[in-house]
Amino acid sequence: MAKFKEAFLESVLRDLDFPITNSGKFLIDVILSDSKQDMVYVWSKIPALIDKITKLKGYLAISNNQTKVKISIDKNSVSDDVMSDFYNIVNTWSKKYKIGLDFDPKKESFYIK
After folding, report:
1. Burial 73-103 (b: 16+ CB within 10 A, else e)
2. Measuring CA to CA, how many Å separate 81 from each of 23, 24, 96?
3. Is 103 within 8 Å of 72 (Cβ atoms)?
4. pLDDT digits 0-9 by tens, 54-68
5. pLDDT digits (tens, 9 = 90+) for 71-93
6. Can you give the pLDDT at residue 3?
7. Torsion angle of alpha carbons 55, 40, 8, 58, nearest 10°?
8. Which CB contacts under 8 angstroms, 24+ apart, belong to 17-26?
9. Residue 1: predicted pLDDT
């Protein structure tokens, strides 16, 4: 694995609070390779999002049912106002940086395309 790619995958795993292992790097590589976006660009914009959503109990994680990174919040532990703020932050971030997201209303989660 090229040094840049390996360092990038490790950075993504750290941002997701995921163990840095060979299987973790492989999983992230598959997820990022499946994306239709420039994930180096997308990931350069992730810290700005993380800073804002973690204050609301939002988080980024590897999806359990899709090969995507999800942006989510535990809707049962926050007020409707916080949920609204969360949606606004994620949507504003997505539009500002032109990052495509899918939304699953059942899970109230966004998925990076």
Report:
1. beeeebeeebeebbeebbeebbeeeebebee
2. 38, 35, 22
3. no
4. 999 999 999 988 889
5. 999 988 999 999 999 999 999 99
6. 86
7. 20
8. 18/62, 25/1
9. 58
